[in-house]
Amino acid sequence: MTELSVEPIEREAIHEFDDDRFTRERVCVVTGAASGIGRALALAAAVNGLTVLATDVDEDGLAETHSHAARLEVGDAVEPFVADLTDDDDLESIAVAARDLGDVTFLANVAGLQHVAPLESFPLEAYDRLQRVMVRAPFVLSRHCWPNLEATDGCVGNMASVHGHYVTSGKVAYNVAKFAVRGLTQSIAAEGDGAVRSFSVSTGYVKTPLVTDQIPETAAQRGLEVDEVVEDVMLGQARTDDMMTPLEVAHQFLFGFSDLGAHLNGGDLLLDDGMTLTYD
Predict the structure, then answer these.
(1) How far apart are CA 280 and CA 101, in angstroms?
(2) Which of 5, 85, 113, 156 has the fewest CB within 10 Å, making it most exposed?
(3) Domain residues for 152?
(4) Region label for 32, one of left (φ > 0), alpha (ψ between -120 and 50) or beta (otherwise)
(5) CA 164, CA 159: separation in Å to the nearest integer?
(6) In this structure, what is the dihedral angle of CA atoms 164, 155, 61, 124, given to the nearest 10 degrees?
(7) Number of structural domains in the chain
(8) 3-state DSSP call for residue 279?
């Protein structure tokens, strides 16, 4: 079976971008920072010189993220902030807390949820929660941070997915959300008018709790063994035998935020190992 565990991030594994705007005076807001891609991005952004507001509803997970940051000697650059992305007051408080830290320049909407069920029986509560966390919250946070992003020539990076390009069964809420995220990304680019950039990152399956936790559900729904879900469903169409790591995805966000991504505006970085664009 494909190895699903990921070793703790070491400082030497983090790519450091040569960018004059990656300074402690500038703030990068990262949602979903308690684990997976969000945690990796919070750590990588801090190592790259930014001040990070690391937010998540999972207080214990955020404490672990901060502990990792301290181990990498950037604990002072990562500010944990517990917030619920389905709560409008909490969304506003994230923007206020970020402004208190410095010049809000980068917003990374990474937080994600998953629920696997057939469309005809998909729970409405689960559907609504996925939309609030992965579509509405990124819009509201962009709205709250907009004046600061305009003032700093800022950038919004959104976590999309191969499921924002094509869909798989049993994930209707996730599919809809990821297509919507790409629409939000393009809307930000249109209205940013060059002062605020945006981009999205679309990956295949990444070694995160969000992915590994859904394997048993997918196996049960499709009548497969767990190994078969990984090898045939998750990696079956990709031209690879391994998943991306959270840090590899974090590097794509930092590329988009950096001056190397200066002409990336409204675009989607598709890193899917050929999953959506090739076939046997």
Answers:
(1) 51
(2) 5
(3) 21-205+245-271
(4) left
(5) 10
(6) -40
(7) 1
(8) coil
Query: pLDDT confidence of 131, banded at 50, 70, 90?
Result: very high
- What does the pLDDT read at residue 123? 98
Residue 223 neighbours by CB under 8 Å, 6+ apart:
none
78 exposure class (CB count in 10 Å sphere: 0-12, 13-18, 19+):
buried
CATH number at residue 259: 3.40.50.720
Rounded CA separation 272/2 (Å): 17
Other CB atoms within 10 Å distance of the CB of residue 99: 16
Instruction: Please check whether residue 225 lies inside any domain of the structure.
Output: no
Is residue 210 in some structural domain?
Answer: no
pLDDT band at 1 (very low <50, low <70, confident <90, very high): very low
Which tens digits make up the pLDDT trace of 161-198?
Answer: 999 999 989 999 999 999 999 999 999 999 999 999 99
pLDDT tens digits for 227-240?
A: 555 555 555 565 56
- 10, part of any domain: no
- Residue 109: is its pLDDT beyond 60? yes
Determine the Cα–Cα distance for residues 159 and 102; give it in Å rounded to an integer.
24
